[in-house]
Structure formats: C-alpha cells, structure tokens
Design brief:
- The radius of gyration is 20 Å and the shape is globular.
- Helix 1 runs antiparallel to helix 2 and helix 4 packs parallel to helix 5.
- 39% of the residues lie in helices and 14% in strands.
- It is of the alpha/beta class and 386 residues long.
- The strands form four sheets. An eight-stranded parallel barrel has the order 1-4-7-8-9-10-11-14.
Length: 386
C-alpha cells in the first residue's frame, strides 16, 4: 500500500466569520458555568446550538487528488468536547466531519483561547484520565461513523509526553506520564473490543523539541516512557524536533543502525528546522526553504528512518508546515479595508506568528509535499535496488 501524506488539520482549515465568535461565546459560557453550576445542565444544548455558527471547511487547495491525501485530525477543536471536567464527546460534531483522516493528534499542554481545555499527560488526575479516554473514544467513534474517511487501516493517535512543573519535577513528571501511558494502553484495548470492527487505534508518544520543561526530548527518553507498554503504545518520530536537540540526530541514526529502536517507531512528523544564529530553531518551516546540503542530509536520513522503522508499513507521514498568510485561514477578511491588521490581532494570542519569518505560503506547503514525496519514493526498497 502506498504511503499516505497528511497535513495537520489546523494548517489546512478555513474558518468562517462566526468561528472566532463561537470561541468567545464558548469561553464566556464556561466561565459562567464555573460560577453558576446549574448552567452546566444546559452545556450540551448550548454547544450543539453554536455548531450552527462555527463552520469550517477543508482547504481544497491543499487536500484532494494530487495534493495531500488527508489530514492529521487535531482534537484541539473545541467543538468536539464540552464540560472541561468530564470531556464529554459531542456526537453531533462527529456526525459533521467530512474530511479524510490519516491519523489523530491529542490536545496539547496549552490552549491560548480555552485555557480549561489544556491536556498535560504528566499530570495524574481524574480529569486527565477522562480526557485521555474521551479523546481515544472519539477516534473510535469517528472510525465507526465514517469508516471510509479514515484512510489508514489502523490509524495512529499522537500524544505529547507532557510538560514538567519545574526543573526539579522532571523525573517525577516522567513517572506520572508513564502512569498515564499505562492507562492509555489498557483503555485503548478496552475501546478496541467495545467498538470492534477489526480496526485499532495505535497510541504513540511524540518526541518533543528542545525546551526547558518538555518531556521526551530524546528518543531514549521516549523509549523509557513506553517501557513495558511497547506492545500497545508506539512512538511518533518528529524529525524537525530531533534537529533542535543537540546531538540527537546522531544518536537517532546510531540507534536505528545498531539497535531495536526502530521497532517502536511507526509514524513520522516532518517539517524543516532552520539554523538561525548558529542554533537550530523550532520554526515549522517548509522544506522549500531548505538550504545548501541540508536537502541531501534529509534524503539520507529519510532513507535510514524508513528502512529501519515501521513507518512505511504503517503507511502515513504527516507534514507540519503552516502557511504564514492569515488570509489562507480567514479568507473573508481579505476584502476588508483593514483585513490584515484585524487578522493579525485575532490570531496573535494563538502564537500563530511565532517564527513567521521562516514560514511560507500555500505554494511552499505544496512544494514541501512534493519534495518529501520525491525523497520517500526515492528511498523505497524497489527503487534503491533497481
């Protein structure tokens, strides 16, 4: 089966005029629920009603025939869940999904717009366990409701390992994360039996970029995190993150050549991490902006990664390359006199413009896809042997 190429869902989404109003109303309602508990009884009805306003569409310039095959669906979409303590699943939203999906991505540690919906895997609480279960169950419900839209047989589900409270907490944080990984392993097996159908979600832990408090910045730490759960929980290798950690690229390649590390790696995230002032930056830049001999290095590294891991068998690669043009996400602002300044103001809280100087536009997103597709095809076994 040929490899499917996905793009992160939030990099390929067009948001309607009412979407930001929806987020604002949702945030305000949640604040009221905190103070007036009786309103929680109306939360599902409130959330369902707002779905009529908060319309999004898939960018047909990015996903379709001869383009990206599918998306990696980020469950950070606030329409999918309600009740931040219970993480209740919005079945009506699942029924509205019409996008081809290759893999899933869990919530992340920070949510700039809805702070209650952050998800930190290294915090052990009933809320975190409920969130993990609801997110996995959502993937199974999507497969059940839209089996033809999930274009990989057993889709990967990507989790971050979490962020420690402080430097002194890192070791304890990893232990807490392992507790939750064990819970994910058991819960995923239960859900697979419950939903049946012969298809299974594969939970994975993604390696983090260089950061003071993020866990699993090395593949060695990732292996430690899933130790004992390897049959149920695998790894997502983020190559762009690897480049930001001093010496990690060499350790990764040595580990692939000389050990069994590749057996756990089943999914690949790709983006370019440019060098700025002699330091590799976590910029999610497109491969169309790669310079010098870095393209040959990428070709060689992909050759080793695909040959010595389970990525090709799993059948999916995700590119994380956003466009820096806000009109690609909010096209309805283009005709307004102050459209760009309004877009900048609306998107600034999300961190959208961080590293913007290194990002490209839709043409760069598609060029990156073509570059990666060519490199992957070149490294296929039948081509190497011909």
């Amino acid at each position: 089966m040929p490899i499917k190429y996905a793009i992160s869902s939030h990099h390929a989404t067009i948001y309607s005029e009412a979407c930001l109003a929806y987020v604002s109303l949702r945030s305000g309602f949640e604040s009221l629920v905190d103070r007036i508990y009786v309103l929680s009884k109306a939360e599902k009805r409130f959330n369902d009603f707002l779905l009529r306003l908060a319309r999004t569409t898939l960018n047909s310039r990015l996903v379709g025939p001869h383009l990206f095959d599918a998306i990696e669906l980020h469950l950070t979409d606030p329409r999918l869940f309600y009740n931040a303590l219970e993480w209740k699943i919005n079945d009506k939203m699942i029924g509205l999904l019409r996008d081809p999906i290759a893999s899933f991505h869990a919530h992340v540690e920070k949510n700039p717009l809805l702070k209650r919906y952050s998800f930190n895997l290294c915090e052990t609480s009933r809320r975190v366990r409920r969130a993990a279960r609801s997110q996995l169950e959502t993937a199974y419900r999507i497969m059940q409701t839209h089996p033809d839209l999930v274009v990989t047989e057993n889709p990967v589900f990507v989790f971050h390992a979490g962020v420690a409270r402080n430097e002194e907490d890192r070791e304890k944080a990893l232990a807490r994360s392992r507790e939750n990984i064990g819970y994910i392993a058991v819960t995923n097996t239960q859900l697979c039996k419950e939903y049946g159908g012969g298809r299974r979600v594969i939970p994975t832990i993604e390696n983090s970029p260089r950061d003071r408090l993020s866990l699993c910045q090395t593949i060695g730490d990732c292996r430690q995190a899933i130790a004992g759960f390897e049959d149920e929980v695998k790894l997502t290798l983020d190559y762009g993150h690897v480049l930001t950690v001093d010496g990690e690229r060499g350790r990764l390649l040595d580990g692939l050549k000389g050990g069994t590390i590749g057996e756990s790696i089943v999914h690949l995230h790709l983006h370019h991490s440019p060098e700025v002032n002699k330091e590799i930056q976590h910029a999610h830049a497109p491969f169309s902006k790669i310079q010098g001999g870095q393209l040959q290095r990428l070709r060689d590294d992909l050759h080793e990664i695909l040959e010595r891991t389970g990525i090709r068998k799993q059948g999916c690669i995700t590119l994380e390359v956003p466009s820096k043009d806000p009109f690609d996400y909010l096209p309805w602002l283009r005709g307004m006199k102050r459209g760009r300044s309004m877009a900048n103001r609306l998107l600034k809280p999300t961190g959208f413009f961080e590293s913007g100087a290194h990002r490209g536009n839709i043409e760069d997103q598609l060029a990156s896809l073509n570059i990666v597709r060519e490199l992957v095809d070149w490294s296929a076994p039948d081509i190497r042997q011909s």
